Amino acid sequence: EAVVSTQSTGVAQKISELKLEESEHKLVIDALKDVNDPTRKCYQLVGGVLMERTVGQVQPNLENNSSKIKSLINTMDKTLETKAKELADFKDKHGIKVRGEDTMEDKSKSDSAPASTGVLVN
Predict the structure, then answer these.
(1) Largest Cα–Cα distance of the chain, in whole Å?
(2) Are 38 and 54 in contact (CB under 8 A)?
(3) Which of 3, 17, 34, 117 has a 20 to 30 A CA-CA distance from 43?
């Protein structure tokens, strides 16, 4: 269980990072769409090194990278769903209940029942 849970967490973190990177690519692509001169200088950070390029060189690379990132996010989303199903199946099989993970049924039952007013005497 711990391995699958750790793997799920890792995949979810990577998806989050990739979504951030995708949004950054989208911002730059949108900014470059307004540039009508494909020979205009621009700078691209490649492996920690700032490279001087032209808009015509950078724009296709960004669009290609963005589509690859989207594809990778979709693949990782499917992987995350699979891991979540594995974890749920494992918990069901072994009768594991995690404190704080109430099901929707448990919450609806507790919402409909009147709250008890207990008194603690010391």
Answers:
(1) 80
(2) yes
(3) 17
Task: Tell me phi and psi for residue 105, to 5 degrees.
Answer: -65, -45
Give the angle subtended at the CA of 81 by the CAs of 79 and 87, to the nearest 5°.
105
Q: How many residues comprise the chain?
A: 122
Q: Is 117 exposed, middle or buried (0-12, 13-18, 19+ CB in 10 A)?
A: exposed
The pLDDT value recorded for residue 112 is 57
**Cα 17–8–19 angle (5° rounding)?**
20
Backbone angles phi, psi at 43, to 5 degrees: -125, 140
Inter-residue contact 6 to 36 (CB < 8 Å): no
